[in-house]
């Protein structure tokens, strides 16, 4: 039976019988003939006061369809081959989504993956993150950035990508579902697993890799890339990656190296440059994390307190939130030729310490699966383009500081150094080890000190700070105007009931590792496959996973 598209009220969409009635009406059939429905896609349109739920469903019709719907499990079952004795072996640097999904794909082609992860396995990583949240110190190799599953494991678990051209995104969802994610990720437009659920899924992926003969080595930091000079004719290069050396001196050799390092591996970028591997400055974004009471965001986004909510008006505003979940938002504006936009919005979430270096302060957001905290937070970031880091006028707008001389070195790491510079500013205006600088939102926009601070979800704690005075104007001034623009769209968004914390600096990689668009190998080095966020070719869990799949497929088809 063909898929049916429905536009329903939140109340109708929450009731399976109401969905079946809507299908029957659209097909001009008796209700009794609709034996079952399966949701294929679900999204919420809250742009108007009459909020609608958009459903795509597959019905079972008496006498026409099969007697049962397709099973809830994925239609495919991955065919992972045993690679204990495989002749082909590939080294994967990093156990984030790009590295893990590359490994799963190699298994399907009978190639042995050997994953080298600088951090700890996910259970041990939890303990280091608990210490970090209690302000008891940062483990530079095991934190919100580094460890099994990558940065996404403990920073929300959103499975959403705006890119539709990278490949089969649905396969990524099906693989997550195969390894334990809820079925809802197969049809929710903005799918979300939750940081409380992702660790067990990541562990299941690990067990698949190991049970089929792959290897995963934790606490194993790569410190050197092995490059062999040969007679390769393609890509105009004679250099070929043959393996890596780790911190303890161990060599791992393979026919190729997949570089899936993640966007926070600053020391690895420097290692690549020292090894003669060319990298490039890439556009990225930096800003702050803003936190509102979730009730305020619900009121703004769901038009609560208004009279019109459609014919089937809920008994109360609480009923609407119960049906739809806590509200999220997506905001974007242009200020002085640069985008200012929301990033990684976490309804019912928490702000977390997301740095990887002891001399910087970095914040990010996460939500558990139920998204039920009383706070809503989001990164609000400003677009930084490569030319912004090379123009003298831009550099003159930065605060005068002895560290600024580092920003005048142009080797492909300019953006990385700018990230570190602003993170260090945040640490100087916070309180060691992890208390973050904080200011009420309206005070920030109006250039006023905050005499006190409201409750905040950031567990290590906050200290009052004039972010309007120390953020580089290329960021701070644009943020101030951006918040004014957002308040015009949603009056009440700009309020002193909200706070901003500094800084949100790891929204994406500031470095791109160049690769050939067809072979996906580094443009100068055969056998080296940069992929994922750290290589500058993805922006989140799903796109990183898919980029890892594509790198593995390129190797498999050699």
Short description:
The protein has 558 residues and is of the alpha/beta class.
SSE layout and pairing:
Elements: E1 4-8, H1 10-13, H2 16-27, E2 34-45, E3 52-61, E4 89-93, H3 97-108, E5 112-116, H4 122-133, E6 158-159, H5 169-178, E7 191-192, H6 198-211, E8 215-217, E9 222-229, E10 239-246, E11 251-253, E12 256-259, H7 266-274, E13 280-281, E14 284-293, H8 294-302, H9 317-324, E15 332-335, E16 338-346, E17 350-353, E18 363-366, E19 375-384, H10 392-396, H11 414-429, E20 436-440, H12 441-446, E21 462-464, H13 467-470, H14 473-489, E22 499-504, E23 511-512, E24 525-526, E25 528-530, H15 541-556
Parallel strand pairs: 4-5, 4-12, 5-8, 10-24, 12-25, 20-21
Antiparallel strand pairs: 1-3, 2-3, 6-7, 9-10, 10-11, 13-23, 14-19, 14-22, 15-16, 16-19, 17-18, 20-22
């Amino acid at each position: 039976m063909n898929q049916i598209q429905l536009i329903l009220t939140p109340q109708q969409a929450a009731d399976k019988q109401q969905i079946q009635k809507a299908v029957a009406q659209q097909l001009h059939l008796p209700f009794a003939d609709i034996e079952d429905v399966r949701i294929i896609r679900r999204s919420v349109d809250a742009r108007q006061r009459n909020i609608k739920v958009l459903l795509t469903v597959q019905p079972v019709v008496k006498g026409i369809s099969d007697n049962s719907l397709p099973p809830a499990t994925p239609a495919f079952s991955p065919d992972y081959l045993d690679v204990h004795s495989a002749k082909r072996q590939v080294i994967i640097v990093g156990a984030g989504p790009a590295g893990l999904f590359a490994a799963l794909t190699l298994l399907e082609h009978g190639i042995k993956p050997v994953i080298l992860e600088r951090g700890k396995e996910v259970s041990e990583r939890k303990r280091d993150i608990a210490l970090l949240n209690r302000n008891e110190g940062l483990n530079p190799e095991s934190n919100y950035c580094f460890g099994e599953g990558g940065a996404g494991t403990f920073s929300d678990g959103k499975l959403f990508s705006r890119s539709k051209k990278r490949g089969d995104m649905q396969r990524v969802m099906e693989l997550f579902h195969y390894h334990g994610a809820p079925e809802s990720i197969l049809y929710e437009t903005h799918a979300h697993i939750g940081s409380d659920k992702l660790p067990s899924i990541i562990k299941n992926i690990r067990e698949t890799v190991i049970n089929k003969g792959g290897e995963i080595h934790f606490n194993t930091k790569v410190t050197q890339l092995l490059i062999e000079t040969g007679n390769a004719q393609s890509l105009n290069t004679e250099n070929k990656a043959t393996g890596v050396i780790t911190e303890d001196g161990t060599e791992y050799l393979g026919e190729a190296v997949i570089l899936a390092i993640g966007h926070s591996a600053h020391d690895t970028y420097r290692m690549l440059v020292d090894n003669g591997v060319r990298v490039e400055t890439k556009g990225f974004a930096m800003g702050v994390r803003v936190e509102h009471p979730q009730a305020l965001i619900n009121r703004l986004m769901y038009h609560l307190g208004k009279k019109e909510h459609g014919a089937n008006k809920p008994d109360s505003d609480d009923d609407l939130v119960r049906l739809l979940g806590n509200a999220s938002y997506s905001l974007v504006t242009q200020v002085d030729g640069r985008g200012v936009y929301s990033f990684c919005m976490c309804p019912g979430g928490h702000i977390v310490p997301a740095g990887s270096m002891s001399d910087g302060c970095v914040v990010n957001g996460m939500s558990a699966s139920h998204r039920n905290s009383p706070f809503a937070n989001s990164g609000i970031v400003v677009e930084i383009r490569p030319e912004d880091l090379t123009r003298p006028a831009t550099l003159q707008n930065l605060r005068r500081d002895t560290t600024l001389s580092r920003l005048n070195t142009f080797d492909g790491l300019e953006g990385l150094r700018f990230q570190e510079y602003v993170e260090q500013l945040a640490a100087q205006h916070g309180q060691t080890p992890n208390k973050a600088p904080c200011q009420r939102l309206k005070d920030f926009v109006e250039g006023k000190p905050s005499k006190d601070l409201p409750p905040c979800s950031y567990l290590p704690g906050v200290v009052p700070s004039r972010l309007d005075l120390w953020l580089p104007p290329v960021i701070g001034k644009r943020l101030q105007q951006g918040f004014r623009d957002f308040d015009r769209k949603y009056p009440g968004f700009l309020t002193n009931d909200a706070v901003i914390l500094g800084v949100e600096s790891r929204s994406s990689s500031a470095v791109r590792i160049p690769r050939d668009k067809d072979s996906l190998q580094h443009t100068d080095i055969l056998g080296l496959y940069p992929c994922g966020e750290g290589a500058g070719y993805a922006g989140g869990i799903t796109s990183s996973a898919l980029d890892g799949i594509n790198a593995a497929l390129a190797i498999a088809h050699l």
